[in-house]
Fold Carboxymuconolactone decarboxylase.
Amino acid sequence: MTSSSVSSHVSSPAPSSPRYAAGLAQLARIEGRSPPSLETALADIAPDLARFAIEFAYGDIYARPQLDLAQRQLATSGALAALGNASPQLKFHLAGALQVGCTAEELVELATHMAVYAGFPAAVNTALVLKELFAEKGIALPPKPDAQALEGSRYARGWAGLQAIDGHAGERVIAALGEVAPDLGRYIVEFAFGDVYARPGLSVLSRELVTVAALTALGTAPAQLKVHMHGFMNVGGKREQLVEIVTHTAVYAGFPAAINAALVAKETMAERNLG
Amino acid sequence: MTSSSVSSHVSSPAPSSPRYAAGLAQLARIEGRSPPSLETALADIAPDLARFAIEFAYGDIYARPQLDLAQRQLATSGALAALGNASPQLKFHLAGALQVGCTAEELVELATHMAVYAGFPAAVNTALVLKELFAEKGIALPPKPDAQALEGSRYARGWAGLQAIDGHAGERVIAALGEVAPDLGRYIVEFAFGDVYARPGLSVLSRELVTVAALTALGTAPAQLKVHMHGFMNVGGKREQLVEIVTHTAVYAGFPAAINAALVAKETMAERNLG
Amino acid sequence: MTSSSVSSHVSSPAPSSPRYAAGLAQLARIEGRSPPSLETALADIAPDLARFAIEFAYGDIYARPQLDLAQRQLATSGALAALGNASPQLKFHLAGALQVGCTAEELVELATHMAVYAGFPAAVNTALVLKELFAEKGIALPPKPDAQALEGSRYARGWAGLQAIDGHAGERVIAALGEVAPDLGRYIVEFAFGDVYARPGLSVLSRELVTVAALTALGTAPAQLKVHMHGFMNVGGKREQLVEIVTHTAVYAGFPAAINAALVAKETMAERNLG
């Protein structure tokens, strides 16, 4: 370990378990190439970390049927955009999202949606990653949604959206804020639901999927996570999909974050009598 | 969306709602130029995200009278310094703080103050952003405070400060630590209060404002957030200012963080019989 | 503060308190040089922040006997790897870990271990920092552990490890997940314990030390922190070492994170009747 020692790493033969092979196949669908760049990057520093990513993350998790690859890439992108501390991986997975069929417009909407749950800096930084990515790929930018097409007042539109998506759980949040910070409650209705949720380009189901992944990864707002777990199911999400978003996010934010979110999911199911 | 497609984005006319105009005016006061760089940076990737930032963050929030622009820039800088994951925005808002009248010394103190609430790496990285910013602007650095001017022992000075600022809530924290980690309690008195809070250059009210914004954004320490909400009010902060710091921080850390802090504010007010 | 003002900072004489001298000596052992680079980097922007780091972090904390320097560098590296938002400091402290006697293999294992507690992106980014560091220092990479040497099924090996390390507290987590996300529980057994904890190169005691530091810094999973505080003591860690990991982490993640972890330690001790 002295400074005069020289690198003498002998590359080992590639692992060849069935889990590894399955993971390689999934990763090739996401990255659009093989061998994966992760294997190359870590080969001479932590090859087993690359193997674990391929065997566990891609071989075990991504191969599961509860979510399709496009949904997994949206969940991953939402989690990494919210954490804001892994921009190489965020770029990789936004590219992967395009590769498995997400549209450029969906990803721009995902970035915009993040303003609500992780703040404007997280949203802007995600948009700038997309800008770089689209430039590299020569992707035409999605046409700008016509804001004028949104009818009615922002508050009325937002309140209708909040009721339809989050139901009574969302209404209770606004009511609880009414006694201390009523304007904060109003901004949630007007901005989060009136401006953002009402936009086309990303389905309401995908918005709730992304929100659940982001709040699972952040780990700081279990009460809001439960509201959006209800929201995910209110707009058509299934129990097994919800549990899968949480399981999937273990890869990107660690097991403690996933365990805590799974316990919130359990409470959510009990409240819905789906336990 | 193939790699051979070319960019065909047609720039849309600038939005022109009253909220947008109000936001543009506030942002010009902070950035010291117009049109805002955010609008330019996002024009061909997520123009509506820029519009939302201008309409909602600057038009709705910054225009509110409960905090002045200098206080808002301190709150934003404290939140982003603590999160540590958005350094372009941190630099932008530290520059904005200078633009609206904060002194260079206040910002250096803000960086130093962060060591207590988000750790030394967050503090050092904020100081290095300031170093870059001051070099670009040719700003003379503030004279170094004379540490020798602080009289008495660090512990005695710190204990007096903790009592004056955080009151019984602060004393209870130290007592609770006494049974398990008494030295940690001693360091809070000596370092946080004896060394840092006692420094000139940033008022105690501003220190508590920055602390409330930082802990709201981090979202991981609601008990300490409540101690410092009491602290903010103990040193002269007003109820509506406290609620406004929380509302303001929604822009930088998202609504879930702000909702949780608002509910802590509600408990704080109830304890003070100001509910 | 106008753009035409010029820097007129007059460098002050170096501080010379006994705490400062003690801190300088500790820091020289970690950095392997003197004067410290931190003092130089902050000299003309926030010299007192550098002084506080030297007096408080290195003079007060690092000089304490409850943990040795190698353990402190592992704790620091685990905390910063998990936070993921201070990569210059992460690199500095990984280099410091080598300087005080940690092996290259231990650090690669630390990076790999992070996949479990902070997710794969945090693990991969830490491995890439190590790659850069080892290249700069001409360090030969550790031989790849022979995965085939791990006998038996991943689940059986993992379950035995989980029982030995986390005891009943770990078993209860898996049981609680069984009702909502049984596969997540299975992955914890197979991947976290069967694949990662079973690896040579980083002792189980060091793995629990790193885990406690990481979860203290993240601040988002107090229940899992308690499981691993029990785990640290189950594998031979001492009460005073556990409290010291928490106290040490105040330097890297701030006092609120340390206070909350100290209160979890208090509960842990009470459960073990060591209060």
Q: What stands out?
A: The mean pLDDT of chain B is 89.
